[in-house]
Amino acid sequence: MYNYVVTLFVILNAFFDFNYFIKTLYGVWSGRICKGKCTLNEVTTVYGICSFRDCNITFNSIRLARLIRQLDFARYNFYDRTGIYQRSKELKVTSLQGCTLTVTYEPVPLFWRYKIETELVYWDDRSLFLEHKVITLCDARVRSFIVSRQHVIGENAQSASSLLEGLPGSEVRPVCREYLKDWFKSMEISSAKLRSVK
C-alpha cells in the first residue's frame, strides 16, 4: 500500500504541479477556518519558508520567479476572504495577472520563514492593484515590495467596480498612490516605444 501511495505521489509531481494544488487548497481552507472573512481595505497574511526548490542557483536565497509564484497563494487567500472569489464566480469573471512592479531590498535567505502581507491599494475600471510586502519573521524586515496588477476579464465586459460592488470596504475607492501614477506613466512610455518599433 505504501508503495502505491509513493508511486502516485511521484507521478502526480512529475506530470502535474501537485504541490501547487495542495498549497492553494491549504491556503484557502486555512483562511476560511482560522481567520474568517475580512473587508477589502484590510491586510491579509500568508506564511512561507524558503526551501531548496525556491532558491537561486547558488542556494543562498529565494528566486524572484518563486516569490512571484508565492503571490498566487497570497492573492487566492485575499480573494477568498474578502468575497472577491465568490463574486467573480457569480459574475463569471476571471482575473489575469497583467504585470508586476517589484522592488527587492534584500532576498529571503534559505530556510528563513517569511510572511506576505497583501492589501488592495487601488482599482480602476479594468484592474485591481494589490500591494504585497514580503517580511522575514525573525527580524521583521521588509525584503521585497511587489505590486501586482490583476486585469478583470468577464463575458459581459464587467468592470473591476462591478466586481467589487457591494463587498465590505468597496464604498470608498482608495486614492491612487503617487508611485502607482509614476508606474502608469512608465508603462505608457514603454508601450509607446514598442508601438513605434512596428
UniProtKB/TrEMBL annotation:
Keyword GTP-binding: no
Protein family: Belongs to the THEM6 family.
Membrane-spanning intervals of the chain: 6-22
Keyword annotations of the record: Membrane, Transmembrane, Transmembrane helix
Name the record gives this protein: Protein THEM6
